[in-house]
Design goal:
With 332 residues, the chain is an alpha/beta fold. The chain folds into two domains: 215 residues, Spore Coat Polysaccharide Biosynthesis Protein SpsA, Chain A, CATH 3.90.550; 90 residues, no CATH class. Helices cover 49% and strands 17% of the residues. The strands form two sheets. It has a five-stranded mixed beta sheet with strand order 3-2-1-4-8. Strands 5, 6, 7 and 9 form a four-stranded mixed beta sheet that branches. Helix 2 links the parallel strand 2 and strand 3.
Amino acid sequence: MDKTKHLVSVIVPCYNEENTIQLLLNSILKQDFPIRDVEVVISDAFSQDKTREKIMEFTQAHPELAVKVVDNPQCTIPAAVNAAAQASDGEYLVRLDAHSMPYPDYISTCVRDLQAGKGTNVGGVWEIRPGTDSGIARAIAAAAANPLAVGDARYRFSNQEGEVDTVPFGSFRRDLFFEIGGFDESLLTNEDYEFNVRIRKQGGKIWFDPNIRCIYFARKNLNELAKQYWRYGFWKFKMLKRYPDTLRWRQALPPVFVLVNALGILLSPFFGWIILPYLSVLGLYCLILLLAGVREAIRRSEPGLIFFLPAAIMTMHFAWGAGFLMSILTKK
């Protein structure tokens, strides 16, 4: 193991993030943690926009923050994290995304919790913000923090500290990262959840601290959202094939719902008695989502959420479930 030069290495997978990379770097610069003890390692998958130019602009303007860029030729998130970790020299690794903005006490709280032994991997709350200033983008951000869309994933909405199955991003000791084996590069998504499974199976704890907060910019439109959640569902099944005991109820519902809808549509022409119960279930589902939209529209004083929020949640459910079912049908 190389001699440690920094106490903390912030590791960042990155691809085409010219609009947000400087926001991230500035938020790291403004941390209440001693900046001399922090380095940032960005693993870039050969961005085609001006991401690297934006990084260079920042480093020239702020030489007090150590920033290094490493290549990610495999162009996947787990490979990016592994490459950044390999190039790092910190005692602790704090993983962030290029389209995120940690609160000023993010690093200090992560390190404090790790040093206090609260968890092997420590993380906190995703404070979801719209990816752009549009009604549907605001609905997507609201959906990403709504229990109807994300179930009991506490990091989306909870204020209760405690042990959980996973946290977003996470922070952990560098030596632990390599002892566990790093991120599994055969999983293009769910690699962080699988990493946490290995930690737990070796007796470690995943700790959620609501005082650890990070702003995360959600997808901009329903097309991007559908692709994201289809990918989540597809790779979740691949991970569950290895660790079936990690299945949570929130993960089982979307594929069951998609399957019920598919069977309802296919069988209704042949079995007329199916139509009424099928439409009743579908109608109840739509009513629940519509009521959630009304509630959120009133709470946020934004009438468009009455319809946009149900559309976003429905997209998440169907895309995740369809991806999961498609993964079952593939051999790999």
